[in-house]
Design brief:
The termini are close together. With about 220 residues, the protein is α/β, with parallel strands linked by helices. Helix 1 crosses helix 4. It has helices at about 20-30, 40, 50-60, 65-85, 95-105, 120-125, 150-160, 170-180, 210-215; strands at about 5-10, 110-115, 135, 165-170, 185-190, 200. Helix content is about 45%, strand content about 10%. The chain has two domains: about 5-15 and about 90-215, Rossmann fold; about 20-85, DNA polymerase, domain 1 (Orthogonal Bundle), CATH 1.10.150. The chain is globular, with a radius of gyration of 17 Å. Strands 3-2-1-4-5-6 form a six-stranded parallel sheet. Bound molecules: 1,6-di-O-phosphono-beta-D-glucopyranose and magnesium ion. 1,6-di-O-phosphono-beta-D-glucopyranose binds near residues 12, 48, 52, 77 and 171. Belongs to the HAD-like hydrolase superfamily. CbbY/CbbZ/Gph/YieH family.
Length: about 220
């Protein structure tokens, strides 16, 4: 059997932490009198914490000192982490665990490729840490998606070429990063939004192990 690298994004693919990011950013936005809706939150998916704050400030046409920005970034993360305290395996998105298990049983290397600096504690709390052979997150990269850096580092750590790497992503920038990196992109979410992906599924419950077997054989 061939060996492929399977690289998973975190937020929106393995767990739905977007709702917690939203609540935490909303608190900051409220304090600054900036309107921040669910539609606005879509703009922050897959985007780094620093860039997310800049987007929110741009929305409100607010200019701020670096000192203020640093304070809000700390405040946002503290608020976000407070939502993760009680996180457990029940927050793993439907269908994800059976696929991870299938990949492990078939000796396929698995990596995480996320923009989040909180990726490790999330994998620990959900009990998924042992499934990952490599973890590349916001602490390891200098270039944000759509730059393929995060996925290229992950493939390298797994000792697999980009052409033999498969990326699961829920954000447009993440799909583009996989494509730019010459990897197979699998979009998880709306076909309209993720049309640049090679394959698109609504969620992991619609991915069967036969499809994964075919990917491994390709
Ligand atoms: P943190 P992903 C991304 O994770 C989120 O989609 C994005 O909304 C968030 O701003 C970013 O992580 C940074 O997260 O504040 O925890 O470092 O989708 O790349 O797994
Ligand atoms: Mg994501």
């Amino acid at each position: 059997m061939n060996t492929k690298a399977f690289i998973f994004d975190l937020d929106g693919v393995i767990v739905d932490t977007a709702k917690y990011h939203y609540l935490a950013w909303q608190k900051i936005a409220n304090e600054l009198n900036i309107e921040f809706t669910h539609e606005h939150n879509e703009l922050l998916k897959g985007v780094s914490r620093v860039r997310s704050l800049d987007i929110i400030l741009e929305l409100g046409k607010v200019t701020a000192s670096q000192e203020d920005k640093d304070r809000w970034l700390v405040q946002k993360n503290e608020e976000y982490l407070s939502y993760l305290v009680d996180m457990n395996e029940s927050e793993i998105l439907p269908g994800v665990f059976p696929i991870l298990k299938f990949l492990k049983e078939n000796n396929q290397p698995i990596a995480l490729g996320s923009a989040s600096k909180n990726a490790r504690p999330i994998l620990e709390k959900t009990g998924l840490l042992p499934y990952f052979d490599a973890i590349v997150d916001g602490n390891d990269v200098t270039n944000a998606k759509p730059d393929p850096e995060v996925f290229l580092i992950a493939a390298k750590l797994l000792n697999i070429t980009p052409e033999n790497s498969i990326v699961f992503e829920d954000s447009v920038a993440g799909v583009q990063a996989a494509n730019i990196g010459n990897m197979t992109s699998i979009g998880i979410g709306e076909a309209n939004t993720l049309h640049e992906a090679k394959y698109i599924f609504n969620d992991f419950t619609t991915i069967d192990t036969h499809f994964i077997e075919e990917l491994i054989k390709e």
